[in-house]
């Protein structure tokens, strides 16, 4: 994934540089326009109309349905353009006009370089504090006593702990590329920089200029610097890791094409970080986006207004009235369409019932075929292997051997449920070999074909992980608030995210005296009248 | 079977009859000391207060109440029976009761025929 923007005071050998080497793809025109758009619009509304680009998934699926025996590779909706709307602080405002991709690479490397420099400066400062007096005025320096030497050990270990802690917190490979700077990291980096600068200032003025002889004092000064750095690291942990752990908001994520909805509980995050968390969960929770399933409703909608045509009987109107005429035309069409007695609901019902029946029939055939195929495979035990060495096959060969017997049934089923573009023949055979190796039952093997799984289950080209745009009215570095709405747009669908605050729960207590658990059996009551 | 007419006595705000009832379809019939058949879930008179309107009218302990003012009492819950007896707008209740000695007499006479 992309680099985490801005400076982090402590990344030495970044996962960042590791990460940046991984990104082979750079931006093209489409990306450039988007980046300008998102970096310019701090507060403006950027709800885009559905893209003018064709729905690639749709077209290729239709193409496959025409050819009968086409098991072709999965259609890729990735067009080879990657899109990262990076905007980092001042650098972006300077380089907004950079047209070529080389500019963005420089940005990333600049980022990494700055963080490394800051880290080295911070790490070497205490050592410099300790060594400089020895270099500059060794003769006048008072000898270091026992307590002072003890402080050396303390400095050494504290620096080691700091190193390990920074490695644990900041050296992780970045999980996402955010459009704007990560505010907390930038703040922390600035804080560290100011802190170290002030220490240097003090050191330079009071110690170097006056050539202080009290070496113990200098050592204690260096120790205090390392202590303060450890505390800043603690602050970093709290701000970056701990603060968002307590759930505060509940986010409702809906996919625009088919309405699949999930809810997530998040803490107090900025909008861009919340978007990253949501996307990470999207890949495992939402069923894969299948454009082939949407064609039915579109054709119904088209048929609804299709039969109406508007004729303008009064001749060409004036320009001023053109808009009025257009409006009245559309209103007339809508009114006529509503009045027309259409039985599309009837068609829908019968069509769905028929489809259901067909799917069930094909599924039954498929299950039977697969079960028969699996009974042909028997697991060889170690002792029995010697009996018939000629028959032993590895799972791959076994899969290839039984695949033809169920291929047809599987193909028909996938075509009926419009999933055939999600599975290639190669992937099916691989899955079959996998099931055979792990001694799975036919039902376990079929599970991935009978139900649509999350996007992560399918090939990498379905992931489209680099094609997300964050569209939001509020600035993306501002925190989540109750009622925040933002969009995460991929190529042909978008995720609509709404935020709600988790209600404040007031618990009341009621004490039950254990002595009150006494019962009387009243089976024969007597009432006086 | 005997018909007994009790005139309620006004005691302050209440109208009392001067006896206690037990039994009902929601009660445990095996604990009824007065019934011959221990599965009988009818309403029985368990106590009659001395000198009260019930005693004066001739009600005895152990009587089984069959009807109250025409309402059947053999298949009612305890509370329903109480309500039928303590209606505020009625000053007089007419009961149809059965007594064990009466029961035996009736049975014997039936067997003779």
UniProtKB/TrEMBL annotation, chain A:
Cite the record's Basic residues compositional bias ranges: 18-34
The highest taxon in the source lineage is Eukaryota
Q: Which PANTHER family match?
A: VANG-LIKE PROTEIN (PTHR20886)
InterPro entries documented for this protein: VANGL
Q: Which organism is it from?
A: Cyprinus carpio carpio
**What keywords would UniProt list here?**
Cell membrane, Membrane, Transmembrane, Transmembrane helix
Q: Which GO terms describe its cellular component?
A: plasma membrane
Q: What is this protein called?
A: Vang-like protein
Membrane-spanning ranges: 109-131, 151-170, 182-203, 218-240
TrEMBL record, chain B:
Q: Name one GO biological process term.
A: establishment or maintenance of epithelial cell apical/basal polarity
**Where would you find this protein in the cell?**
Cell membrane; Cytoplasm; Nucleus
Q: How does it sit in the membrane?
A: Peripheral membrane protein
Q: Does the keyword Iron apply?
A: no
All residue ranges annotated as the PDZ domain in the record: 3-100
Listed CDD domains: PDZ_TAX1BP3-like
Q: Which UniProt keywords apply?
A: Acetylation, Cell membrane, Cytoplasm, Membrane, Nucleus, Phosphoprotein, Wnt signaling pathway
Q: Which GO terms describe its molecular function?
A: protein kinase binding
For the keyword Transport, the answer is no
Main localization is: membrane
What are the record's GO terms for cellular component? adherens junction; basolateral plasma membrane; cytoplasm; nucleus; postsynaptic density; postsynaptic membrane
Q: Which PANTHER family match?
A: DISCS LARGE, PDZ DOMAIN-CONTAINING PROTEIN
The name under which this protein is listed is: Tax1-binding protein 3
Species for this entry = Cyprinus carpio carpio
């Amino acid at each position: 994934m992309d680099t985490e923007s801005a400076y982090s005071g402590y990344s030495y050998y970044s996962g960042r540089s590791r990460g940046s080497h991984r990104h082979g793809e750079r931006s093209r025109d489409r990306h450039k326009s988007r980046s300008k758009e998102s970096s310019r619009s701090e507060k403006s509304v950027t709800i885009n109309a559905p893209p003018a680009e064709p729905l690639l998934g749709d077209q290729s699926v239709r193409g496959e349905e025409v050819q009968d025996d086409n098991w072709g590779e999965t259609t890729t909706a990735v067009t080879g353009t990657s899109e990262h709307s990076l905007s980092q602080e001042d650098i972006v405002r300077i380089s907004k006009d950079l047209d070529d991709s080389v500019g963005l690479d420089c940005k990333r490397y600049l980022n990494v370089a700055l963080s490394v420099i800051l880290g080295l400066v911070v790490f070497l400062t205490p050592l410099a504090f300790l060594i400089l007096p020895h270099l500059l005025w060794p003769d006048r320096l008072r000898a270091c006593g026992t307590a002072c030497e003890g402080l050396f050990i303390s400095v050494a270990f504290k620096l080691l702990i700091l190193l390990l802690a920074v490695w644990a917190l900041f050296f992780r490979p970045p999980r996402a590329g955010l459009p704007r700077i990560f505010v907390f990291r930038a703040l922390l980096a600035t804080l560290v920089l100011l802190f170290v600068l002030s220490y240097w200032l003090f050191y330079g003025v009071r110690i170097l200029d006056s050539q202080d002889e009290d070496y113990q004092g200098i050592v204690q000064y260096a120790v205090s610097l390392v202590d303060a750095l450890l505390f800043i690291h603690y602050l970093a942990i709290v701000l970056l890791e701990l603060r968002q752990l307590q759930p505060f908001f509940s986010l409702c994520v809906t996919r625009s094409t088919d309405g699949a909805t999930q809810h997530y509980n998040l803490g107090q995050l900025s909008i861009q970080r919340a978007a990253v968390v949501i996307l990470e969960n999207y890949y495992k929770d939402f069923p894969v986006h299948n454009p082939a399933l949407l064609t039915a409703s579109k054709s119904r909608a088209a048929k609804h207004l299709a039969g109406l045509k508007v004729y303008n009987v009064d001749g060409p109107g004036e320009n001023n009235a053109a808009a009025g005429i257009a409006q009245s035309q559309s209103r007339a069409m809508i009114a006529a369409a509503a009045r027309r007695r259409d039985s599309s609901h009837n068609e829908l019902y019968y069509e769905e019932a028929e489809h259901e029946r067909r799917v069930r029939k094909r599924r039954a055939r498929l299950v039977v075929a697969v079960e028969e195929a699996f009974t042909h495979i028997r697991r060889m035990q170690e002792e029995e292997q010697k009996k018939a060495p000629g028959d032993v096959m590895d799972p791959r060969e076994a899969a290839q051997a039984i695949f033809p017997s169920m291929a047809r049934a599987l193909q028909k089923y996938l075509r009926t449920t419009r999933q055939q573009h999600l599975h290639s023949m190669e992937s099916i055979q691989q899955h079959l070999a996998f099931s055979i190796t792990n001694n799975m039952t036919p039902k376990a093997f079929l599970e991935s074909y009978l139900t649509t799984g999350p996007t992560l289950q399918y090939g990498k080209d379905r992931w489209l992980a680099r094609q997300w745009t964050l569209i939001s009215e509020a600035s993306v570095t501002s925190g989540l608030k109750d009622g925040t709405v933002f969009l995460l747009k991929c190529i042909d669908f978008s995720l609509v995210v709404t935020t709600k605050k988790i209600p404040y729960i007031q618990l009341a207590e009621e004490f039950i005296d254990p002595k009150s658990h006494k019962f009387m059996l009243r089976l024969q009551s007597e009432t006086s009248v | 079977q005997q018909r007994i007419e009790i005139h309620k006595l006004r005691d302050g705000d209440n109208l009392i009859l001067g006896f206690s009832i037990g039994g009902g379809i929601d009660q445990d019939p095996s604990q009824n000391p007065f019934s011959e058949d221990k599965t009988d879930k009818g309403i029985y008179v368990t106590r009659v207060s001395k000198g009260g309107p019930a005693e004066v009218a001739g009600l005895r302990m152990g009587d089984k109440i069959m009807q109250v003012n025409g309402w059947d009492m053999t298949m009612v819950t305890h509370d329903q029976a109480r309500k039928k007896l303590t209606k505020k707008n009625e000053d007089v209740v007419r009961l149809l009761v059965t007594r064990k000695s009466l029961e035996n007499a009736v049975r014997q006479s039936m067997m003779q025929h």
